[in-house]
Amino acid sequence: MIKSKLPDVGTTIFTVMSQLAQEHGAINLSQGFPGFDTYPYLRDLLAKYVMEGYNQYAPMTGIPSLKERIADKTLNLHDVAFEAEEEVTVVSGATEALYAAVTAVIEPGDEAIILEPAYDSYSPAVRLNGGVPVYIPLNLPDFSVDWQKVKDAITEKTKVIMVNTPHNPGGYVWTAEDLNQLYALIQDREIYVISDEVYEQITFDGRKHLPVFSHPGLRERSLVCGSFGKTFHVTGWKIGYCLAPKPLSREFRKIHQFLTFSTSTPMQYALADFMENPSRYIFLHEFYEKKRNRFCRGLKETAFEFIPAQGSFFQVVSYGHLSDEKDTEVAIRMTKEIGVACIPVSAFFHDHRDPKLLRFCFAKEDRDLDKALDRIKTFRF
User: Fold this and answer.
1) 237 phi and psi, to 5 degrees?
2) For the chain, which has fewer Cβ within 10 Å, the N-terminal or C-terminal residue?
3) What letter does residue 54 receive in the DSSP assignment?
């Protein structure tokens, strides 16, 4: 029998809750995927390229036109230039990008600071590469960073700080001061930044997404991972990308070529054509802000406490003032009793600590959000 490299890892909570939702016919506000289809024109573009025979391997780093679109978007939105050919890499989903980035940087014994609650792929990627995760809790209830705790955690072995903005599950959006604080801590050290920015187009209330590379001091030591799945409602396409300076991109690509080598060819061509019109992504925040507002209006009629998410398509609610029940039990009971599935936030902590929080995905049709809210109002502790 083989010795497991991740003996403490089982089926993810996202899979568990989605299966439970299906079994009980519940409205699935748990797993982070849109409850509506992508744009018809994007589907038509994909069909076009499939029918025209664009069905063989793409170049390992991505087709030139898509890399150019990504570089153009970055320049237009953030006034930061990346060389499409050498600093932009197309990959098979942001999770692959994160894994390849960690693998490129982490050596056995290196420490990686992970800000919790955190997406569940960060720690396994570090551990599988022989690294040591160092967990720092975010401030609650707003999920901001306690920079003193980060400073105290840095040692001579620290090699990576994992960043996530807009934050999943908490919805916090990093500020310019956050970027300044991060740079102040690492400017005199060989510490790299791996930043998960898959919700970059989804920020609310006038907030602007600030990618880590927008800070001049951070650009040369950062690998930024993005995704088309969240932006264009195609999570099942599993297409992402990594932006990094040339030296880091070279090492990143060495890993990528032995993970998936290349990414779906017709999908890349379809996305490249679709992105010719920037309005297809720069106004996405308006679409999701309406959904967040709709969901939060309904939550105000419940006993839950919450701070409206600053970004992402998740809303976290607190019930600690109502009950000491474990969040996993509450999530399961909610699915079975009222037919609404959510995610217990303890799943985002390595030690499964329970701050009595639940995460709901509001990237759903309005009718499903309204139906879910009507059911949530009937839930009792």
Assistant:
1) -75, -25
2) N
3) -
